[in-house]
Amino acid sequence: MADSSTNSGANCMDKFKSYVKTPKGFILAAEIILSLIIIICYAASHYGGYSAVAICEMVFAIVFFGVFMMELDKQFQLVNWVWSDLFRAGIGALLYIITSLICVIGGSGDGARIAGGVFGLIAGLVFAYDTYTIFLQIKSTRQHTAAATDDRV
Q: What is the reported pTM?
């Protein structure tokens, strides 16, 4: 019994390593790391309220990373994971860009707030790129081929 738990732990780590090497895994890992950096920057600033966006987006990115890494999206088909991921990334891009512009424009004298805003703009671009790649994935799966017609009927 003890051998199976160590094998499952090694199996989980192998899944983690192999998923981070995929394009989607790399993007999600970058979103998580950028969100953590933004949380640290906003926590060091005088206005810590902007960290709520970074916390929520980091938690959502971790959840989707875990779901896609463990291939739970293939087991729980009640949720449309691709569309959910599209909405997560799109909303995250908009929220990061809006709050980061507010922090960069109004953050005079607070270097940590400006740094959080700059990293937030970078995160907004990463989330926007993730939205674009998900949109291309949806677009490629929704293209229908022409049905074959039988003229002998």
A: 0.84
Q: Tell me the C-alpha distance between 103 and 80, whole Å.
A: 34
Structure tokens at 21: 């090497």
pLDDT per position as a tens digit, 28-65: 999 999 999 999 999 999 887 889 999 999 999 999 99
Query: How many whole angstroms separate alpha carbon 28 and alpha carbon 17?
Result: 13
32, 58 contact by CB (below 8 A):
yes
Summarize pLDDT for 1-26 with one digit per residue, the tens: 444 555 566 688 888 889 999 999 99
Query: What are the distances in angstroms from CA 12 to CA 29, 57, 130?
Result: 16, 23, 24
Q: Yes or no: say if 82 and 58 are a contact pair by the CB < 8 Å rule.
A: no
